[in-house]
Amino acid sequence: MDAFELSQLQDAIVQSAVDAIIVIDQQGLICFFSPSAEKLFGYDAAQCIGQNVSMLMTRQHAAQHDSYVHNYNTSGKAKIIGIGRDVQAQRKDGTVFPMHLSVGESITGQGRIFVGVCHDLSEFKAVLERLISAEQRYRDIVQNQKEFICRLSKNSRLTFVNNAFSRQCQRKRWHAGPAQMTLSCYYH
């Protein structure tokens, strides 16, 4: 593969990437803004090139970002380079959304650049919240039942009891220690 074909391949990869790709220089100015970044943030690339990347952050993160870049450029101590983390980002319309950000670094003929790959976590977080809520509703239903609900292991050991079961067992006398807990409180 010659240099031209390699360049075309690299361009195709970046242009078709599902996750947003943003490249900034040592000063934090945006040098590249992929089509997926345009879709994710709501800006055209032309609106972003040459602007500080903090325009894509919440006020809290934006206020600190330039100092992070400066500290890294002077000390060389990476706090996010090569590491992914979840952050809050901000779209052009002002909406804040959860995003996973991975940052890599490279040295080019023009100097050091930072490559950010951004993955929108909005749908994942929404599903997670619904799952947590459904689990809590299930737990509330089980715990608030007046009937006894329990789960037994294969050898008849209790692995779960609801509140009603627990209250009844507290009224009975156990015939063994907690490690030996079985249904014996109901056999007497």
| Rg from alpha-carbon coordinates | 27 Å
Number of helical regions: 6
Domain tally: 2
Q: Which structural class fits the helix and strand makeup?
A: alpha+beta
CATH topology of the largest domain: Beta-Lactamase
User: Could you tell me the number of beta strands?
Assistant: 7
- Overall average residue pLDDT: 85
- The end-to-end span amounts to 82 Å
CATH class of the largest domain equals: Alpha Beta
Helix content: 25-40%
Give the H and E element order.
Answer: HEEHHHEEEHEEH
Strand order in the largest sheet: 2-1-5-4-3
Choose one word for the global shape. elongated
The CATH homologous superfamily of the largest domain is called: PAS domain
The CATH architecture name of the largest domain reads 2-Layer Sandwich
Low-confidence stretches: 173-180, 184-188
Bin the strand percentage. Answer: 25-35%
Q: What oligomerization state is this entry in?
A: single chain
Characterize the largest beta sheet: strand count, sense, and whether it forms a barrel.
5 strands, antiparallel
